[in-house]
Write a structure and sequence with these properties.
Blueprint lengths: L1 H7 L3 H15 L10 H12 L17 H16 L4 H5 L2 E3 L2 E3 L12 H6 L14 E5 L5 H9 L4 E6 L2 H13 L6 E5 L11 E6 L6 H4 L4 H4 L14 H9 L4 E10 L4 H7 L6 E2 L9 E5 H4 L1
Parallel strand pairs: 3-4, 3-6, 4-5, 6-7
Antiparallel strand pairs: 1-2, 7-9, 8-9
Helix pairs in contact: 1-4, 2-3, 2-4, 3-4
Length: 297
Amino acid sequence: MFEQAQSELSTLRDLMRFAVSRFNEAGLFYGHGTDNAWDEAAYLLLHTLHLPLDQLDPYIDARLTGDERAALLKVIKRRISERLPAAYLTNEAWLGDYRFYVDERVIVPRSHIAELLHEQLSPWVEDPWAVGSVLDLCTGSGCLAILAAHAFPEARIDAVDLSPEALAVARRNVDDYELDTRLRLFQSNGFAEIQGRQYDVIISNPPYVNAESMAVLPEEYRREPELALAGGKDGLDLVRIILREAPSHLKTEGLLVVEIGHNRDDLEMAFPETPFIWLDTSAGDRHVFLLRREDLV
């Protein structure tokens, strides 16, 4: 079928239709930036052709060269046969207007905390320029640490991850954004290597997928590092550590912001006395909580 497509299809519209048909036929899973076959195909094909990612219509009926058809068919075939998230095929992921390099050493950036940083954690942070220090725990690609550096222009950022492979990716992104004088990377198991340091804000998108969900993850998610996904039996193993140890790393009026996926009910059951503040995101108010240091002590 792909050989036939190489010889018989001629326009970008033809290849878009072909990609959507093949993606639907293969039963691909989405969730790393798109949620349907059309958007996934549009992103992959426009990126491969070095065209603006938000401008499909002007080029939809453009005829393709033989080399261009071959390149598009190759990326379509890889998406199907390898079940790789699109971000790993293009080595890029976007959070709003911010682009990040990614590969299979890190999970694909998709944190709801990004939206909150875009708003500078308003209204919980009254003066973003007064924030002097931020910790990003489980930084992965470094994306949230970089967003925090832009949200809080006067802050020094520490970004921590257990994986040296992830930190290598984060280093590339930090260098791309020329933040090496403000953003430090630490290899650390939780807070272990930053003892004695305190912060105005701690953010974290830790591993939070519970064991039951890990057992049935779609293939696309299995291409991501298990270390960055698996959160133990109920998904809260690292969250418990964060809640226990964060107070000693927060300044007096410090804030803790943590993403916990779909585990709100389990978290509230495990910590019934903790006054979690649930933050509104595009996905609702069940995925990210905020706590003040005084609520943790």
